[in-house]
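Dear colleagues,

As part of the handover before I leave the project, I'm documenting each prediction I ran so the next person doesn't have to rerun anything. This entry is a single chain, and its sequence is reproduced below.
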Amino acid sequence: MAQIVLPGGEARDVAVFLAEAVTFVHSVAIAVARVDARHELREVDRLTMRTEHAVEIRLVDGQRLQGLFSYVQPEGRNRLTDFLNDAPPFLRLLQGDMVALVNKRHVAYVEALSR
């Protein structure tokens, strides 16, 4: 199971597999998708030395998300700015036992928080 959040905050729980009743959602229309961290994080993610930043993300529709960016970047490119510029279309934000996959197209700004 996963949860998708559309612009404006409407949330829908979805099963990520094909069934008889299917709803297709264009990836551009998804602001955030949340999944249980155990489905998203691999063992190598837990064992690798990673750069981490506590952040607040403000979406263009006003939604605010807080969590942790945890990533591996090449030497000399491990700043938060480098990660945000190099990241794929969906940013992986750790939120406790959940992972929020945040669509970069819907991000107004990211603010680093002190831990």
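Residues 2-112 form one domain. The beta strands are 2-5, 11-14, 32-36, 51-59, 64-71, 90-95, 98-103, 107-112.

All the best with the project,
I.
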